[in-house]
Amino acid sequence: MLSFRPNIPAPGFRGGILAFVFLWFFLGGIAHFAFTQAEMSIVPPAFPDHRALVLISGVFELLGAFGLLLRRTRAAAGWGLLALTAAVTPANINMWQHAANYPAIPFWALTLRLAFQAVLMAAIWWSTRTER
What we know:
Largest sheet: none
Structural class: mainly alpha
Radius of gyration: 16 Å
Order of helices and strands: HHHHH
Strand content: under 5%
Helix content: over 70%
Shape: globular
Number of domains: 1
Distance between the termini: 30 Å
Mean pLDDT: 91
Number of helices: 5
Low-confidence stretches: none
Number of strands: 0
């Protein structure tokens, strides 16, 4: 019989970082479906079919988030989320370069968001690597 038992790490710093990464991608994945139009607006114009890209990246955010819950899929989910984060960085750069198109978001927040990409990638790698 197949049963689903999430392997949540013991409370602590690493478990907290893993929980943060899970929530980041789980909520982000949902946002891709709940706010598709807004998400589409940040995709660089040179990219094709903005709607498809937003929906596909939303699916992969959710798959990655759920992959974090099982020890046997956590490392693969981590690598996938690293690749996904790198793949969506052009959208964040596009927002930063065209900050005037997003007047509700302060320029400093867009700048911080870009820097946060590196912090997020470090958190993904550190929290999902296999311990020896």
